[in-house]
Amino acid sequence: MPTCNLLFKPLLLAFLVLPAAAGADSFPPPLESALARSNIPGSAVAVLVQRVDGSPPLLSHRSGEAMNPASVMKLVTAQVALERLGPAFAWKTRVSTREEIRGGVLDGSLHISGGGDPRLSRERLWLLLRELRAQGIRRIAGDVTTDRSLFRLAPHDPAAFDQRPLRPYNAGADALSVDYGAIRLRLQPTADGATVRSDPQPVDLVIESRIRRSDGGSCGDPTAALSASTTQAGRTTKLSLGGSLAAGCTEAFDWNLAPLPPERLFEGLFRRLWKELGGEIGGHFRDGSPPPDARLLAETSSPPLPEVLRDMNKWSNNVIARHVLATLGATAEPGQDSVTAGRRVVEQSLRAGGVDTRGFVIDNGAGLSRSARISAHSLGQLLQHAWRSPTMPELVASLPIAGIDGTARRRLANSPAAGHAHVKTGTLDGVRSLAGYVLARDGQRYAVVLMINHPNAGAARDAQDALLEWVAER
Fold first, then answer.
1. In b/e form, how buried is each residue of 305-340, taking b as 16+ CB within 10 angstroms?
2. Does 320 lie in the same domain as 214?
3. How many other CB atoms are there within 10 angstroms of residue 150's CB atom?
4. Domain shared by 201 and 242, yes or no
5. Are 70 and 432 contacting, i.e. CB atoms less than 8 angstroms apart?
6. Per-residue pLDDT for 144 more than 80?
7. Which whole number is the average pLDDT over 322-334?
8. Of 257, 285, 317, at which residue does a domain stop?
9. Would you state the pLDDT for residue 5?
10. Does some domain include residue 3?
11. For residues 38-66, b (16+ Cβ closer than 10 Å) or e, as one string?
12. pTM above threshold 0.85
């Protein structure tokens, strides 16, 4: 009997803890088969599956290798934000003046101080301006000064990542951003093209449609064959839309684009909404801080941090992630470069939580990066640390649920993992990743990480689903 125990023990350990450098034959059969079908070698894959109670890993392959996680990096940003800013944190945008209001005229300048709110929308801006009108202001005799000094940011090039500067995901952070730095176009297909409108349309933005109809084809993604470009003439920006709509496209649809830098978008929307409310502006828009003796006229607050993180993770919003990282830096090290300071805050927080930061590169906090790196081992540690954190419910609630909502709503709808996997996914050219929690049939919750960096990564969806199903069926 003692001899049998000695023989059985190493076999059990080998089953529970696969070596970090294991080959493809160590994968669960469904995962191994899916990778083989996609021609993805084990050397391009990192996997970690481990119970949240810290038991030895059920599966570990190349887990110590730092890899590009794509949008899974948002998990890191979210967890550190919950720890450092707290679940009650909210961003505020304030409007102030030192002048008096006489006969409907503000006899001087109006000051708007940006608080870095990533969720400031045209609707909330409209409500803020209505509050000013309710206080009797019809005409602003002086200038409108906008204070963006909370964030200290390097110049942002929206074309730097993929040469698609008008895509909303490429918009940068700004302390006084509105609508994620983008506008929403409403396109109505017509017999020979499409009519286009934006409501409200920012002042000094002209929209020109040269969209034509094609002879056939189903609709699918109606924007797939459309193009957009901008030209500048003085203060006027012309947004030109071209390309073709398939004959099958008959219903109106929305198209989000980012044709204006943050300061121009804010000014254009402010002027348009203020005019629609019957207001006038005598001066100009300019940068500047409010004087020390300015009194508060109105303010608007974002939803609390957990709700903002829910939008960030459920729909993989890159602009929110950039804002959160900059906010971490601006609150910890005022006056310093906000992104650089934010990176320091994240690394310090990870180390304090027992997370291995060797090879870790957060870059912009969103994962929209070719330089971002983290290991599956570190992500596993982060997930375990987060599970023990008092803000665990807020983090888990922010993650897409397989087969239910967010970016995972169309995944695994009829499988054991549906409704049981809260996972953040990441996608870039050559990168597919996921990380999160899976509740298995055995009643145990598992931290699951899968990262693939390979030219064939785009074909790895089946591999991701196979791993989640394998864990859920335990």
1. bbbbbbbbbbebbbbbbbbbbbbbbbbbbeeebbbe
2. no
3. 19
4. yes
5. yes
6. yes
7. 98
8. 257
9. 38
10. no
11. bebebebbbbbbbbbeeeebbbbbbbbbb
12. yes
